[in-house]
UniProtKB/TrEMBL annotation:
The keyword Metal-binding does not apply. Residues 476-497 are annotated as: Disordered. Residues 5-273 form the HpaB/PvcC/4-BUDH N-terminal domain. One of its GO terms (molecular function) is vinylacetyl-CoA delta-isomerase activity. PANTHER family: 4-HYDROXYPHENYLACETATE 3-MONOOXYGENASE-RELATED. Residues 281-476 form the HpaB/PvcC/4-BUDH C-terminal domain. Its EC number is 5.3.3.3. This is Vinylacetyl-CoA Delta-isomerase.
Length: 497
């Protein structure tokens, strides 16, 4: 059956032979035992365990028509709007289990993106990519592989196209074509969960011209491939996660890394796009909309954690029922549910892009979702800090609490209402600090799946200003073209066209 337990996933990461993983400047031989990587490993593991846990089992499983088996939803190809909705709901539920990003979404979105793009190419008379991808998909689903999606290149000089770069490897490119495959070189940056996956799906990061053809490549490789190096990045409070069981909250977290390809061989059966430069732009459009829709789930789930922590801390100091606190909590709920609602709208309004399926999100609502996410988490965090008080940034450490010489004093002055202990308060403060001031809830909300400017570009392309003008002209009794005749003045995306 195409389902692995969390323990089976972890065991599959042991005994790598080729990939070089570096953490804090040191080579890591076994990522499953490295203390720095442990919180990230546990968060990734939760995506496998969810398929066997009663409260998430139905959301975390799906039936695959490709292998005729039940599989983990994180390797599922969406079969309709219901699957897109289930994705958002699953991500919110998993955030409650991890208090962090769980790192498997980008690979999932990459899988669905390549299903659509290779399907479109097949409809245009180029079936070879589709045949290769479907064979790969079956392997992924049967083995329940952990995937990373690698899209963001190092990019070098941002004002120059790939072929114009002074460093020709600033974008991943093909440097040699062989009878049995291709040789690739370059790097992808900020890749979520990359050191803890089985495979990496590599995709172009931007629209390209004919001169950029060597860079218009999409492929999949095992992470444990000769020539692959991963440099794990740093995050806020990252070393704290190894400190005790209070200051170390949350017990799970995530990581990003720089993955470098130094003349890596990719066999032809794992190449899903090559020199088809016209398709680089549509590929990015499909992927970005998928990924922006998903943020509705994970960010609202983390928002729930923050709202719950803020509410509990207000109770601990006896102010949870005060009007100004209730108003702040209610505002946080509004912001959180707005992000979630937009993601559900993008899902229910999903579109079928292929004759045999290929369900995609509504691109307008997916981008609206991500634009809300780029703003609202910061306000949710600000309000939670307002409620918690300055102590969220100045609380004593758990080592002070455990010091027999000062424990009683810390307990006496850190306690609020008698119902809660000083340790209760310190635990909740640390949870709120680590979740609300984090890469996963703040920085990623701005830059993940594209910065706010990227969503505005999509808005301007998809909104039919002339159609809206025609509506206004008709109501003003002015001469002009007929209104578009649809409830929403939206244009078709390039992919739909």
């Amino acid at each position: 059956m195409g389902l692995r337990t969390g323990d089976q996933y972890v065991e599959g990461l042991r005994n790598r032979k080729h990939v070089k993983v570096y953490v804090m400047g040191k080579r890591v031989e076994d990522v499953t035992t490295n203390l720095f990587m442990k919180p990230s490993l546990l968060s990734f593991k939760a995506t496998f365990d969810a398929a066997f846990q009663e409260d998430t089992r139905d959301l975390a499983r799906a039936y695959s028509p490709f292998i005729n088996e039940e599989i983990n939803r994180f390797v599922h190809i969406h079969q309709g709007p219901q699957d897109l909705v289930a994705k958002v709901k699953l991500l919110r539920a998993l955030s409650h289990k991890t208090g962090s990003c769980f790192q498997r979404c980008v690979g999932w979105d990459g899988l669905n993106t390549m299903y659509i793009i290779t399907g479109k190419l097949a409809e245009k008379g180029k079936p070879v990519y589709r045949e290769r991808f479907l064979k790969y998909l079956e392997e992924v689903q049967r083995r329940d592989l952990a995937l990373a999606g690698a899209m963001t290149d190092a990019r070098g000089v941002r004002s120059l196209r790939p072929h114009e770069q002074p460093n020709p490897d600033a974008y991943v490119r093909v440097v040699e074509e062989r009878d049995d495959g291709i040789i690739v070189r370059g790097a992808k940056a900020n890749i979520t969960g990359v050191a803890l996956v089985d495979e990496v799906i590599v995709m172009p990061t931007r629209a390209m011209t004919e001169k950029d053809a060597p860079y218009a490549v999409a492929f999949a490789v095992p992470l444990d491939s000769p020539g692959v190096t991963v440099v794990v990045g740093r995050q806020i409070n990252d070393v704290r996660k190894a400190e005790g069981d209070i200051d170390g909250l949350p017990y799970m977290s995530h990581h990003e890394g720089l993955i470098i390809f130094e003349d890596v061989f990719v066999p032809w059966d794992r190449v899903f796009l090559y020199q088809e430069w016209q398709w680089a732009g549509p590929l990015v459009e499909v992927f970005s909309a998928f990924h922006r829709q998903g943020y509705a789930g994970c960010k609202s789930g983390l928002g729930d954690v923050i709202i719950g922590a803020a509410y509990n801390l207000a109770k601990q100091i006896g102010v949870a029922d005060k009007p100004n606190i209730v108003d702040k909590l209610t505002e946080m709920v509004f912001l959180n549910e707005s992000m979630y609602s937009a993601g559900l709208a993008a899902s229910w309004e999903g579109k079928k892009l292929l004759k045999d399926g290929g369900w995609w999100v509504n691109p307008m609502y997916a981008n609206v979702t991500k634009h809300l996410v780029s703003r609202f988490p910061y306000e949710i965090s600000r309000l939670s800090h307002d409620i918690a008080g300055g102590i969220i940034g100045t609380a004593p450490s758990e080592f002070d609490l455990k010091n027999s010489e000062i424990r009683q004093l810390v307990e006496k002055y850190l306690q609020g209402v008698p119902e809660f202990t000083a340790e209760d308060r310190l635990r909740m403060l640390r949870l709120l600090e680590n979740v609300s001031v984090s890469v996963g809830f703040l920085i990623e909300s701005v830059h993940g799946a594209g910065s706010p400017a990227a969503q505005k570009i999509v808005f301007s392309r998809l909104y039919d200003f002339q159609g809206a003008e025609a509506v206004a002209k008709r109501l003003a009794r002015m001469r002009g073209p007929e209104p578009p005749g649809t409830p929403e003045p939206h244009k078709k995306s390039d992919v739909e066209k």
